[in-house]
Amino acid sequence: MKNIFPIGFFLLFIGCNSEPNSDLIIKNLQPSDSQAIQFNPAHEPKNTDSSNCKNVENEIGVGEECILKNTTIQKEYLNLINENKIDGIHNLSDTLYNENKAFAINDEGLISSEFKWEGKDKLIIILSYDGGVTEIDFIQNGKNLKRAIYYSGD
To answer: Domain-by-domain residue ranges, the chain?
Structure first.
């Protein structure tokens, strides 16, 4: 027993002095007095393209708006699924219907998805989670596409 104590103490000492990996830190977010919407950065889309994107905060929540060159709603919808840019999005169908639809999913925290078309050039997808809602807006403008992803908590 006396030989185990120094080894355990040494391992504890090394563990306490090592630099933590920032990807593994989980922060306990508390509501602030300003009622700002807080979200988990792990839910943010992984922006790997060379598009013109900016972070935004509005009445819906916080998120990202991008202008994507030479693409369509269909291509970017499939890109979001294939790149798994949003938690649980791989549960959505590869088929993008040209009519309003809603689907119950109930997998990996994703409860449901709703597809709302406003004309042929605007699609809004609402993903409902246990802890909030993610809204994805696609607006086609000629050959370019505005894609906005907003996160809001309950």
So the answer is: 37-153
